[in-house]
Amino acid sequence: MRLLFLVSPPDRLDPAHDSSIALMRAATARGHQALIAEMRELSLRDGHVLARAHAADLRSGSLGRGRAEVLDLDDVGLVLVRTDPPVNDDYLRATYLLDFAQRRGTPVCNSPDALRNTNEKLFALHFLDLIPETVVSASAAELADAVARWGRAVLKPTDAMGGRGVLLLEHGHPNLAGLIEVGTARGRRQVVLQRFVDDGTHSDRRVLVVDGEPVAALRRTAKAPDFRCNMAVGASAAPVPLSKTDRAICATLRPELIGRGIGFAGIDLIGDRLIEVNITSPTGLREIDGGPMETAGRVADAVLRRLLAHAR
């Protein structure tokens, strides 16, 4: 089977860390062909969605582009959208083209509609019983009032990833007003503000979910003095067993994930609180599997196997 991975520029992907490359290796180990393209390389002609695709060259220390071809997505067994945020105008245009491919019968994971309409920072608000107290606002007064009530809070942009723009706010801190001003672009941009959750571990858990079912979990521990648990800012990571809490939260989310066409997600938890649901390019496969990057990891293979079974 030919699999198309829509990725961020390949020269930005780290083979030792990137989950897209882990999935590509698992695909080739199973005898499939992994092809890569960027969203800007999609086009539409006579109702057919085309991609200027390259064979994924996995032999070197970085992801290389092999032979180029114009690929009709009718001839692809599965499209895996693995492009990092932001979900901006360029990203949205690509999802509109993928709609046509999906209507012609090519499975797309995650579905274009889900990628457009499921904001990774706001989706968890559909499950108020599972999340920390949360305010979404551009108002400095409203945000400062919430920080005063809670004592500590975490401010997050709605369209970033990897811990970018995430701020820890504390009531009474002399820079509080300035941090809110920066975060909201002087009141022009809504942000997510969540009550700070402290479970005593200085860590969070990333649970990888396929078709609504948890398959593996990773504990990410912040690198002091930073409070952020994102691997992109230096947090350490190690696989952990799935807990009863992980399974219970996934069971609650499952109908909504499946209903939206979200086949692969990364759910972030602190203690028993749901923080966010990542669907654009969930990471963590390398860290969960461990071992040399040339090896197709067990979890990456399991994820791919379930995605392919669902596509059929």
- Percent of residues in helices comes to 25-40%
Radius of gyration: 20 Å
Mean pLDDT: 92
Distance between the termini: 11 Å
Shape: globular
Figure out the total of helices: 8
Beta content comes to 25-35%
**Unreliable runs:** none
Number of strands: 16
Major sheet details: 7 strands, mixed
SS-based class: alpha+beta
SSE sequence, one letter per element: EHEEEEEHEHEHEEHEEEEHEEHH
Short description:
28% of the residues lie in helices and 30% in strands. With 312 residues, the chain is of the alpha+beta class.
Structural write-up:
- The chain is α+β, with helices and mostly antiparallel strands and 312 residues long.
- Helices cover 28% and strands 30% of the residues.
- The chain has eight helices and 16 strands.
- The chain has helices at 19-29, 89-103, 112-117, 140-150, 176-183, 244-260, 285-289, 298-311, and strands at 2-7, 33-37, 42-45, 48-57, 64-72, 78-82, 108-109, 134-137, 152-156, 167-170, 191-195, 203-210, 213-221, 236-240, 264-270, 273-278.
- Strands 1, 2, 3, 4, 5, 6 and 7 form a seven-stranded mixed beta sheet that branches. A five-stranded antiparallel beta sheet has the order 14-13-12-15-16. Strands 8-11-9-10 form a four-stranded antiparallel beta sheet, covered by helices on one side.
- A hairpin with a 2-residue loop joins strand 12 (203-210) and strand 13.
- Helix 1 (19-29) packs across helix 8 (298-311).
